[in-house]
Structures are given as structure tokens and as C-alpha cells.
Specification:
Blueprint lengths: L1 H28 L7 E15 L7 E13 L3 E2 L5 E16 L4 E7 L6 E8 L2 E17 L2 E16 L9 E4 L2 E2 H7 L1 H7 L6 E3 L2 E8 L2 H14 L9 H4 L14 E2 L2 E2 L1
Antiparallel strand pairs: 1-2, 1-11, 1-12, 2-4, 3-4, 4-5, 4-6, 5-7, 6-7, 7-8, 8-9, 9-12, 10-11, 13-14
Length: 260
């Protein structure tokens, strides 16, 4: 009985520590993080690709996205709502298009980095909140830049933690290659007959997970490698490959050690 009696306080202490830990974790999620920090994130961005003259997507692109953002500290704005400003410091996307037989890559433009925002939806608490991502970016098709300094936003509501988890972000960055070729004679000459006209419709961003700086750097390296592929010298043998023959790292299945 003495052994049992001695064990009771130990068990009680362990249970108390566990409860305190859970309570602290829950408390942390009831408010925005008080300290600013650098975040490294991976996600999957889905964008419908519609060929010129069609109304339905010819395919739905799945792009691996790697983002480094710098988050500030929370403040209360002039309307009485708490908010956190941040900016996207680096951002790279890549993925393979079966229809175009080419690789899409996105990257931040070499220009000013606009502020993004997380803002609470009520004055008496931080969550739920709304998040808005703001970026200016370029888009490449293999080694050809088809979009230059395109401004775009992405947003989501119902955010319950920072960094956001288990939400779908509306990725609203539409683009028409047909219109771009009309405006840019040099781009039209580069593409020639290699690529048909198409548009990128609004998409979504999901499966956001935290990654290491090493995984982030590997994602940037892979995107840079795809931008070295010549669009003008696609071979017929490459066109005849089956989807299963395509590199796994460009399909959104497994990238830089990240499991989906």
C-alpha cells in the first residue's frame, strides 16, 4: 500500500503538467503570436488552364509552392481590430503542364515587396481572422518569361491559427497568354508556334505545412533548374513520354522530402 500511496502524487503531478501544457497550447492559439518571426512554408497551388477558344479547363495545374515570409508583431488598428502585417520575402512555384509539355515556374519580381495582412474579424478576440497575401511576381514557361511584374492577391477567412492550417486560400491571379502576346511583340516572337494561347483561371492554395530552410532552398533550386529548360527545343521523344515518365518532383506528389 505504501508503494501505491507514493505513486499517487507522482501520477497527479504528471497529469497536472500535461493539463498545463495543453492549456498553454490552447491559450497560444487564442491570440496572434506576440513575436515576429521568419516562416518557411510549403503548399500546393491548383490553377485551371484553359486553352484559347475553350470554356472548360484543358487541365488543372498542381504547383509546388515554397514561401519565406517575414511576420511582424500584432497591433490594434484604428477601428479596434487586432492585425499582423507581414511580407512575402521569397516565393517560388513549379509544376509540369501535360497539355503544353512545359514547366511553369513562378517567382517574386525584382521590385518592391507589398505588405500582406492578417486581421481579426471581431474586436474581442483574434480568431477567427482573415488573411490576405499580396505579391508581385513573374511567370515562366520553361526558360521564357510570359508574365512580368504581375500584381496578385490571395485570401482566406476562418483562420484559427498563425501560420494558417487546414484552410483553403483563394488564389486570384488570372492571366491570358493570348492577350499578353498581343501586347508584347517580343514575347509573341519568342513563343512562335511552340505554344498555343491559353489563360490561367483563379485557383486555390491548400496543404500548407511548415518546412525547414534547407527544404525551402531545395525548392528554389528545383524551380531554377526548370527555368533553364529551353522552350524552343522541345523534342518529339519528350512529347511521346507517358505521364508516369515525368519527374516525380514536378507532380505535387513528393517534393524535397515533403510528404503530401
Amino acid at each position: 500500500m505504501k508503494v501505491v500511496t507514493r505513486l499517487i502524487p507522482v501520477v497527479c503531478c504528471i497529469a497536472l503538467l500535461l493539463l498545463v501544457g495543453v492549456s498553454a497550447a490552447n491559450a497560444a492559439q487564442r491570440s496572434f503570436p506576440e513575436r515576429g518571426e521568419v516562416e518557411y512554408e510549403h503548399s500546393i497551388i491548383t490553377i485551371p488552364l484553359v486553352l484559347e477558344g475553350e470554356t472548360q479547363p484543358a487541365e488543372v495545374l498542381k504547383l509546388d509552392a515554397f514561401m519565406r515570409l517575414v511576420r511582424g508583431t500584432p497591433v490594434r488598428n484604428g477601428l479596434g481590430y487586432r492585425q499582423v502585417e507581414f511580407y512575402i520575402d521569397a516565393w517560388e512555384l513549379y509544376g509540369y503542364s501535360k497539355v503544353l509539355d512545359a514547366y511553369f515556374t513562378f517567382r517574386l519580381s525584382d521590385t518592391v515587396k507589398p505588405k500582406s495582412l492578417v486581421v481579426s474579424l471581431q474586436k474581442n478576440g483574434d480568431y477567427p481572422a482573415m488573411i490576405v497575401y499580396d505579391a508581385i511576381y513573374d511567370v515562366y514557361l520553361n526558360d521564357v518569361k510570359i508574365i512580368d511584374k504581375q500584381a496578385g492577391v490571395a485570401f482566406a477567412t476562418g483562420v484559427m491559427e498563425i501560420p494558417p492550417r487546414n484552410i483553403t486560400v483563394a488564389f486570384h491571379k488570372p492571366f491570358s497568354l493570348t492577350e499578353a502576346r498581343k501586347r508584347d511583340a517580343k514575347l509573341d516572337a519568342k513563343l512562335g508556334e511552340v505554344v498555343d494561347g491559353f489563360s490561367l483561371d483563379p485557383g486555390t492554395c491548400e496543404d500548407m505545412t511548415q518546412i525547414t530552410p534547407q527544404q525551402f532552398n531545395e525548392g528554389l533550386r528545383q524551380a531554377g533548374e526548370y527555368r533553364q529548360k529551353s522552350l524552343a527545343h522541345k523534342t518529339s521523344s519528350n512529347n511521346n513520354k507517358k505521364p508516369a515518365d515525368r519527374p516525380a518532383e514536378a507532380t505535387g506528389k513528393k517534393v524535397a522530402g515533403i510528404e503530401h
